[in-house]
What does this fold into?
Amino acid sequence: MHASHGGSSGACMTLELIDISVRDRQSHPRLAGRITGHVSAVLTEILDGNEHRHELSIPVWADVANDAEPADIDMALMLKAAKIIARLKNTMLAAE
It folds into this structure.
């Protein structure tokens, strides 16, 4: 996931997802088939030539089949987090 934008002032911002992993997950206490958890994401941002590293913990949830494999559950949670990050990047780029 990579975004780059240069504004009229010449400033340039680049934001890239460099790592993503499931930190924890558990069954929802009341909703059958729902898994909740946290995904760790590492982003690098290059702003005006300076690199900044951001380590985020993103709360996520996914509805999965009762017989879903652990790897499939992790993928569903990471995809949910990636969509959240994409929305954040789009908001940041639109604000410039």
Remarks:
- The chain has a mean pLDDT of 87.
